[in-house]
Write a structure and sequence with these properties.
This protein is of the alpha+beta class. It has three domains: 90-164, Thrombin, subunit H; 186-282, Thrombin, subunit H (Beta Barrel), CATH 2.40.10; 288-400, Roll (Pdz3 Domain). 17% of the residues lie in helices and 39% in strands. It has seven helices and 24 strands. The chain has helices at residues 3-21, 73-85, 127-130, 269-282, 299-305, 323-327, 362-370; strands spanning 48-55, 58-65, 89-99, 105-116, 122-125, 135-139, 145-154, 159-164, 186-191, 199-212, 218-225, 237-239, 245-252, 264-268, 288-289, 292-297, 312-318, 334-339, 342-346, 350-354, 357-358, 377-384, 387-394, 396-397. The strands form six sheets. It has a six-stranded antiparallel barrel. It has a six-stranded antiparallel beta barrel with strand order 9-10-11-14-13-12. Strands 16, 17, 20, 21, 22 and 23 form a six-stranded antiparallel β-sheet that branches. Strand 1 (48-55) and strand 2 form a beta hairpin. It starts with a helix and ends in a 9-residue tail after the last strand.
Length: 406
């Protein structure tokens, strides 16, 4: 009778050992079974299978998904943008020749990105990607390489047009428009950062602002984004959520570090369209000009020199024979002092509007000019002393006079 409790304990322990080592082994360890309160899809064993792997180090039980998971809506959109845009994106390698201390020729290579415009092989990129290059090579997404010809350059907008020949089945990018972009809008960048071809990053439009380009050239309405942009992305497309080009990646704000800091910039695609139209019509870019040197005006300067308005741009000089002089606009006649090391001339006309659009500073004037062409006639609203007047001006071609106001 005394042995009965002992035998009962032995029986219970034996049963427990058997259950934990044998029962349920065909579908995985007993610990993998559903736990109360945990959704079935989140538990090991739901839509999974167990595979045993054995070797010299022992045995392992691997829990594997029984099928590939479906993509969520956001992932589907990312994939759709990439598949649509990738065949249009190219890698660009430019080779220039520099000279070392002993005047020996040293080849130097630079890398960037671009995108296909049409089936004829025209490609848009940044001017600084191919600047001073003796040889330019384009690699398509299918790894085929072609020698490229530089068709035209526009250093002022940091854009360049290339062409490759004898390439078949080219897939042009779809160009959108950039006038109605909104901060917070999702964007994608595809390019060749650090030589890693076909790389896509994602972010939002962080701001629309005027900046200075790689050669200190003004870029009006530049698209600022937090999508990762690194060396090699230059010239590649910035895309909207439909995979359409809204900008051309051009610049990184990096505080000296040659990598992304979450602040990248792109040239708006509408600027690129205007440049391409000039290339097509004239074989070069005809940048409109008023042929004037100006000074931005704020309240402090306006009060000091007694201007009729506390905003606008004050004409300092007019180019002899230029658009402004032909229209009868006046430049400064008397030196009133210096702003830093810049002499301030008074007596000139103060421009406050163009075609009814307020001109509060030089950025406004540059933006207004950016949407016009050489030969267009515009109406400037100016103050001449205290007299407000409208003056019609026929814009000239800045390319023909670009060195004469410097």
């Amino acid at each position: 009778m005394k042995l009965r409790p002992v035998l009962l304990v032995v029986f219970i322990l034996s049963a427990f050992y058997y259950l934990t080592t044998h029962v349920g082994s065909s579908s995985g360890p007993w610990l993998h079974r559903a736990a109360p309160g945990v959704p079935v899809a989140a538990q090991p064993g739901a839509n999974t299978s167990t595979t045993a792997v054995s070797g010299p180090m022992g045995s392992f039980q691997l829990t594997e998904a029984s099928a590939a998971p479906a993509y969520d809506t956001e992932e589907q959109q990312n994939i759709a943008v990439y598949k649509k845009a990738l065949p249009s994106v190219v890698n660009i390698t430019s080779t220039a020749v520099a000279f070392n201390f002993f005047y020996g020729a040293v080849p130097q290579e630079g890398q960037g990105s671009g995108f296909i415009l049409d089936p004829q092989g025209h490609i848009l990129t940044n001017n600084h990607v191919i600047d001073n290059a003796q040889r330019v090579e384009v690699t398509l997404y299918d790894k085929k390489k072609y020698k490229a010809t530089v068709v035209g350059v526009d250093p002022g907008h940091d854009l360049a047009l290339l062409q490759i020949n004898n390439a078949s089945n080219l897939q042009p990018a779809t160009l959108s428009e950039s006038n109605s972009l909104t901060v917070g809008q999702r964007v994608y960048a595809i390019g060749n950062p650090f030589g890693l071809s076909g790389t896509m990053t994602r972010g939002i439009i962080s701001a629309i602002r005027s900046i200075r380009g790689p050669n200190n050239n003004p870029i009006e309405d530049a698209i600022q984004t937090d999508a990762a942009v690194n060396p090699g992305n230059s010239g590649g497309p910035l895309l909207n959520s439909r995979g359409e080009v809204i900008g051309i990646t051009t610049l990184i704000a990096n505080n000296g570090a040659d990598q992304s800091s979450g602040i990248g910039f792109a040239i708006p695609v509408n600027t690129a369209k205007a440049v391409i139209a000039d290339f097509a019509k004239y074989g070069r870019v005809r940048r409109p000009s008023l042929d004037i040197a100006t000074l931005p005006i704020g309240p402090d300067i306006a009060e000091q020199i007694g201007l009729a308005a506390d905003y606008g741009v004050l004409i300092q000089r007019v180019l002899p024979g230029g658009a402004a002089e032909k229209a009868g606009l006046h430049g400064g006649t008397q030196r009133a002092g210096y702003l830093g090391n810049i002499p301030v001339m008074t007596g000139g006309d103060l421009i406050i509007a163009m075609d009814g659009q307020d001109i509060t500073n030089t950025q406004d004037l540059a933006a207004a000019m950016n949407s016009r062409h050489a030969g267009d006639e515009v109406t400037l609203t100016v103050f001449r002393g205290r007299r407000k007047m409208d003056v019609k001006v026929k814009l000239s071609d800045a390319t023909e006079k670009q060195d004469r106001l410097s």
